[in-house]
Amino acid sequence: MSPRDLTVIVAATSKMGIGRRGTLPWTGLKQEMAYFARVTKRANPGTENIVIMGRKTWESIPLRFRPLKDRVNVVITRAVEPPASDKAVKVGSFDAALRLAEKMDSDRRNFVIGGAQIYREAIQRVETKRILLTRVLTDFECDTFFPVHLNEDGKAEGWERVSKQALDEWVGETVAEGVQEENGTKYIFEMWERT
After folding, report:
1. Residues of the chain with confidence (pLDDT) below 50
2. φ, ψ for residue 171, nearest 5 deg
3. Catalytic residues
């Protein structure tokens, strides 16, 4: 059994850098973070979407924001101690996270939010149908990378960038079009689907 589908949501540089020393290499992208929150929270009434993450991603979320509000937080970890919240569910593997998602209401959307190892596992799964990418155009030094290179020309092996209209329809809002800029960092919202 597997959930209907998985959506990876990630912010990455054009070289697919996603982190540096365990944190995001950019700061102050409040509008981008608000987009992430809206998209991952938007669910049918009475339902909360699932966000699947690794332990390091969980620990990188500031305590005041943990668990991510109005979402079921699933943390993949081999650690013995559970996350400190009834809204966070600890599982021991990506397979266990998928089994948990399958048991829950099928109206939920299932988002994979990091980190690199969890992204790598998600990309290998047939259940992963789309990638919501915030392409950070400003160059940052990174030591952690997304496992698929999504080219700026809209092509990648096994993936294709879809139209702005398809992005808007899937996320349920009119997404800001073109290059956005916050605190000197430029970025674009994109959606990619498996071909």
Report:
1. 1
2. -80, -20
3. 24, 32
